[in-house]
Design a protein that fits this description.
Number of helices: 12
Radius of gyration: 22 Å
Largest sheet: 8 strands, mixed
Shape: globular
Length: 332
């Protein structure tokens, strides 16, 4: 049984002009200890996916179809009390900005102890001891001193380490990390991602890493899902997607990486921008930005297996069919 199983997930937001779908037909599973990356431009639906797994979609949003199962149990059918035993305990979430996550008027120790006491029947002294151990685990210098400090007294990198330590307090089975290094400089980013990878491997914790940075995904994750306008358009082993992207959108993301550019020349970019949820093109949502678009792209493409990846693209579907026909002709 998979640790997490997402089936036909759909999230809608009710507006005056009518409901719009932020997520459409999302399907994937995650095994214990597995690490998966979710990539795409801003507005692709990555963060909404993370929030929907934990049933944290606020009104006017709602999960309008599909199911999220954790160890076989549907999270959509749990009441608030039962959901609290999962959220923050079995599934932890690390948000983008640690200053939005940490309470500025409470010390680090008070926040960590409060979290432990909410989920476990232990003494305050025992909770402080666990908090201290977690700070040591994320390599916080002088952890005893940090417990009595406030968030504003710490650097950005140290605050992010503390947020990771809070996520690990309950020894979760799954961590959802939503752009965990966005506000940090490049050197600190690398340190934080190396730390997260080490902690996940050591504790056999599954990870969903939500990011726009394909370079980070290539270093940390085993599988990758590429999202565009609320849909998954390509998914498969990270190495295959990075080294041999099949979908034109994924190819565009990789070509736009700074290391793919030529010194002294302009960086490559995907023309246009992500469509509004209220104006998504019919058929393939990427068609109005795609150099390979044709009349057939007015129909939503089905997933086609190409190598170890699943790709939702008519062009890839045609190439795979041609390859199969050639193989059959050769065999005949």
């Amino acid at each position: 049984m998979a640790l997490l199983d997402v089936k036909n997930l759909e999230v809608s937001f009710g507006l005056r002009s009518g409901a719009v779908k932020a997520l459409r037909d999302i399907n994937f599973s995650l095994e214990r200890g597995e690490r998966i990356g979710v990539v795409g431009e801003s507005g692709a639906g990555k963060s909404v996916l993370g929030f929907s797994i934990l049933n944290l979609i606020s009104q006017p949003g709602r999960i309008s179809a599909g199911d999220v199962r954790f160890e076989g149990k549907s999270l959509q059918n749990l009441n608030d009390k039962d959901m609290r035993t999962i959220r923050g305990n079995r599934i932890a979430m690390i948000f983008q900005d640690p200053m939005m996550t940490l309470n500025p008027v409470l010390t680090i120790g008070d926040q960590m102890i409060e979290c432990l006491l909410a989920h476990r029947q232990i003494s305050k002294a025992a909770a402080r001891k666990i908090a201290l151990q977690k700070l040591m685990q994320v390599q916080i210098p002088s952890p005893e001193t940090r417990l009595d400090q406030y968030p504003h007294e710490l650097s950005g990198g140290m605050r992010q380490r503390i947020v990771i330590a809070i996520g690990l307090l309950m020894d979760p089975d799954l961590i959802i990390a939503d752009e965990p290094t966005t506000a940090l400089d490049v050197t600190i980013q690398a340190e934080i991602m190396e730390l997260m990878l080490e902690l996940c491997e050591r504790n056999n914790v599954a990870l969903i890493l939500i990011t726009h940075d394909l370079g980070v995904v290539s270093q940390v994750t085993q599988r990758t899902m590429v999202m565009y306008a609320g849909r998954v358009i390509e998914q498969g082993p990270t190495n295959e997607i990075i080294n041999d992207a099949q979908h034109p959108y994924t190819q565009g993301l990789i070509n736009a990486l700074p290391q793919m550019g030529v010194r002294g020349e302009r960086l490559q970019q995907i023309r246009g921008s992500m469509p509004s949820l209220q104006a998504i093109p019919k058929g393939c949502a990427f068609s109005n930005r795609c150099d390979y678009a044709s009349e057939r792209c007015r129909v939503i493409p089905e997933f086609t297996r190409s190598g170890g990846c699943l790709v939702a693209c008519h062009m890839v579907e045609e190439l795979v069919a041609q390859s199969e026909n050639k193989a059959q002709d050769g065999g005949a």
